[in-house]
Amino acid sequence: MYLSCGKHYIEIQSLEGKSEMMNVLSKYEGGQLVLGEDAEQQTTFYIVTIHLGWDGRHRFGIGVCSEEYGLKPHLLLQPELSQLLLGFNHEVVAVGMENRNINFRILLDSLFHSFLAFQSYILIFHEIGVNALDNRGKEIWEYEADVIENFEIIGNHLNLTFMDAPPVSLNLQSDHWQESFARIQPDDFFGRKALRFEQATPRVN
Amino acid sequence: MYQPENNRQINGNLEPEIGRKLDYIFGKATGRLHNLERSLSMLKALERIGIHDTSTSRIYLTKHFQQVFHNPDSISSQNGNWVKRESLLAGPRGFLKVESTWNDNKLITVVLKGTGG
Description:
Structural class of chain B: alpha+beta
Strand content of chain B: 25-35%
Shape of chain B: globular
Helix content of chain A: under 10%
Largest sheet of chain A: 5 strands, mixed
Strand order of the largest sheet of chain A: 1-2-4-5-3
Largest interface: A-B, 23 and 27 residues
Number of helices of chain A: 2
Largest sheet of chain B: 4 strands, antiparallel
Shape of chain A: globular
Order of helices and strands of chain A: EEHEEEEEEEEEEEEEEHE
Distance between the termini of chain B: 37 Å
Radius of gyration of chain B: 14 Å
Number of helices of chain B: 4
Distance between the termini of chain A: 39 Å
Oligomer: heterodimer
């Protein structure tokens, strides 16, 4: 099955080993990128194949060397930017489908979990925290506390519960990081009353 | 700048807080699917080196983290109160490299590396 993304369409496959992945990628007419090669423990390999343009006969391939640790890579399509976001290992990489290159790369402090596109933000959930990007990939803020057990978005608030830390509620509404964190919610969430005020760490680029 | 001697003194007055991380490491996480899969992955890694979820193993792992916390040589990187430490965990059937993340004396998370063979 294919995923449509603008004028391109995308196919994802997993492979047995790195040599097989490299062999497949070497046959792609539209070029290739290999991500995650600096990972210490490469155990699973994936290829994201982008069939370029309307005719789809030229292929651009992105190989991913994944450490896994029980976590599979994620792919977030951004057709309006003709860009793919790949989250895996300890990083997120944005790949442009027109320039067929890495647009930006973000290193995380723990293992990548998942993406959530919310209004003008892209939230990157990793094992112990969240990074917020604007839709051009600029890091707006980050928050880290402990292993995230669960999250939900109610209105403009991101509510997080942790394994060994009190829950927090983060205000996502403001474009300014200073105002993004964290308003004490009077409402109960996840069955708990006691929320705490938290200060975000601004990302200085 | 990190000062090992200072850190040793500070840690000397503190005991590590393990919290519920042993449950996490032994496959008993709660919450999102990602946590469950990650937690089970750590259990499998431990079982490959012959460490199973028993009270003896939990004591063994607790002691391991206590030793790591009090050993300044285990520190691989530090950013303020956040510290990454590396250690080697020995089991009856092999070894695992343990990368642990700490906030002060609180164990935040663990990555178990190696096949245990």
